[in-house]
Amino acid sequence: MTGARLRVSLLAASALFLAGCASAPKTERALAQDEGPWSGRLALQVEGNQSQSFAAGFDLRGNAASGELTLSNPLGGTLAVLSWAPGSAMLRNGGQTRQFESVDALVAHATGSAIPVAALFDWLRGTNTPVPGWQANLSLLPQGRLSAHRTHPQPEADLRIALER
Predict the structure, then answer these.
(1) When you count CB atoms within 10 A of the terminal residue's CB, does the N or C end of the chain come out lower?
(2) How confident is the model at residue 15 (pLDDT cuts 50, 70, 90)?
């Protein structure tokens, strides 16, 4: 995987962390589950000098403190696996492993700025937790859709999540 493609993959994975990623909430109770598993599709568009976009399937287990996120291509092949626990985070892709001291460090490395990991889990549960620089749209969450827009810090970013039904 090229450096740019790895960075986009990391960015998307980070956004998933941020988004806490999701599986289709079939009931209000499903929205309240904070341990998952969640699955679906995500798309991330990052603006800047060189706009980047990424789309992947995902499977997420755990919560903002510890868990695992798998990103997959349209044919179901694994692009990357991220796992995290207090004090560490690991990215595995293409036979390579990278270690980080925390999910926040992984996210900052991948995106160049912090992403509100804990707030995304709230958003997926239907709680519009405010985060400076981010605007979440939860209006379509009952239909399995979530979007969030980051205006600052730069670069701007749009995240869209479609949960499986």
Answers:
(1) C
(2) very low
